[in-house]
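Final report, section 2: Outcomes. Of the targets proposed, Major tegument protein is the one most frequently requested by collaborating groups, and we therefore present its record in full.
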Amino acid sequence: MGGISCSTPKQHQSIPNAVSRTKGKIVMDGTKGRIPVVPYVKPALSSFKSIYASDLKVKRSFPSMEKALQIDSVWMSSFTLPKELIQARFGTRLPSWSGYMEVAHADSGPYDVSEVKFLPFINLDPTNLSCIYTALNFASDQCRKQQLKTCFVTFDQPLFMKATEISTGCPELKQVVPVNHKSYMYNSSDIYVTCCIGEIMSGSGLEDLFATVYAKNSVPQIMSGHSYARAMRAHSLAQQALGVIILKNEIVADSTILAELSSLHQKLMGGEVSCEETRPVACKIRKLYQDKCLELSALNRTAKLWIEYLNQFELVRLFTRAMRCGDWQLYLDSMKAMLPYFHAAAHLPYAKAVHIHLQKMEALEEEMDPFEFENFTR
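The predicted structure is given below as tokens.
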């Protein structure tokens, strides 16, 4: 098993025997670059018996999600502007969602540069319980040396469940918090969500829509989420097209909103206003979009299905934004909103792992040192 250490800010911690990046072939001699294996004796009674799935914190409103969706509505509605107006004011084509978010969140606040270091290897199969136990002990030792009260160790889904079982039954590892790697890394979670979207929307005609842009043989890979980049691009194009259809008549018919949107978009792209300053106009557009979606959903089941599709992909965007901007509350809220779709698509092992992960993350505020929690979530 290999691993990496991520520290923020850079040079905040030093890892003894860290493996430096080199060119060419690496030759390991003896115990250099390796962690001594600590055998793990599995107890007769599984530690999972002491883990109870409790209800997650329920909120009546999600301010972090609503603010993000308002900015998304401004981006989506910008494509409803008349072509002549776009060419006159912006010259080139409008940016994609990623480009728009990069400009909109350019002043999101101060940040620190992180450092990634390669850790020594554990010469065991990663699925071996002794290997996971050794990794947790190594992380715990490094945590104590850095005088940190809490240490986060990330694993992929199968290893996360094993690490959770081990850490729960070992009092000496109480400061170590196993983290579901696929819940904490945005591309992996997005793969699962896009897979859920593909399964839920199977047979709806979405495949035929994608086939107009992508090769027919690549569409199944897009629907399953295995072709991640294509899936994100395809869903983004579909959302953009549907959003324009929903909003175009409403915005063009209202000259006041059209003028406000055009002016706001120009200022936002020019860096003249911040996200907070776009709030009044963004709220209007978001409400207009929501009202129109409710109106269309009431017409028939087909319209309701496609509106639900838009809502599903909005969650993908929210989660991506949370990871890129380091928005802790948006991260938790978007993950909670994804849970029903994991169950609907019968991804039960992943739904179980995400629920346990969220349960642990919600408990951090009470269990962690206040200073460490503030630095971790800011």
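The two ends are 31 Å apart (CA to CA).
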